[in-house]
Each structure stands twice: as structure tokens, then as C-alpha cells.
Specification:
This protein is of the alpha+beta class. The chain is built from 5 helices and 4 strands, in the order αβββααβαα. The chain is globular and about 35 Å long.
């Protein structure tokens, strides 16, 4: 059994869900994160029919440590994530990441929590 699976069995999914909903609670254009095990986590205020599929915890951590439209686009082009939904809705959702304001202290706290997953 991989470390990734052990982490999720030991409450990692609920911790990850808590981190994602807290980190992205202010997103105007919400979306759904779909984890490698099929778990779906909705974030943001107005959740749209846009889903971002992550194939592993490693990829999710990499993007979460610096969430931006450019990083999501790069991961998509590198086929590290898959995006399901309307193209224009996906672009609108991705643009919201660039306007997300996270204080320096909050970035440190979330960075530590993400790193510990």
C-alpha cells in the first residue's frame, strides 16, 4: 500500500477537504476538485459544473502550493490534471485563482498543512 493511500485512510481526505474548502472559500466562481480516489470536493461560492481531476497527491500538492491560473494551465498542458466541463466556464474558474487574496501568514499555515499531507 502506498504512502498516499495510507495518508487518505488515516483521515487525509477529510484534512484535504478542510484545507481546500478553507483555502478556496472566497472563490467567486467555484468548482469541484476530483481526487485520484474519486472523492469530490466542492469549493468556492457559486460552484459551476467544472471539475478538475487530479491523478495523485503529489500533483495536487504542487499546484496547491502556488495556485494560479498559469499553474493550472501548465499542469493541464502537461497532462497532469484533467478538466471536465465547458471550456469558457473552465477559463472563468481558472481566472478566479489569480484574484484570490491569501495573506502571507495564511499561505505559510496552508503550506505547512499541505506539506504534512
Amino acid at each position: 500500500m502506498t504512502t498516499q493511500m495510507k495518508s487518505l485512510e488515516n483521515g487525509g481526505t477529510s484534512k484535504l477537504s478542510e484545507i481546500l474548502t478553507s483555502l478556496f472559500s472566497d472563490l467567486e466562481y467555484g468548482l469541484t476538485f476530483v481526487l485520484w480516489d474519486g472523492t469530490q470536493i466542492e469549493v468556492g461560492r457559486k460552484v459551476q459544473p467544472v471539475k478538475i481531476h487530479f491523478s495523485s497527491m503529489k500533483i495536487l500538492k504542487k499546484i496547491l502550493l502556488n495556485p494560479s491560473a498559469a499553474n493550472f494551465a501548465e499542469a493541464y498542458c502537461d497532462q497532469l490534471i484533467d478538466i471536465e466541463g465547458d471550456l469558457f466556464e473552465s477559463i472563468a474558474a481558472a481566472d478566479c485563482f489569480d484574484y484570490l487574496e491569501i495573506s502571507f501568514m495564511k499561505k505559510i499555515i496552508f503550506g505547512i498543512k499541505i506539506w504534512m499531507l
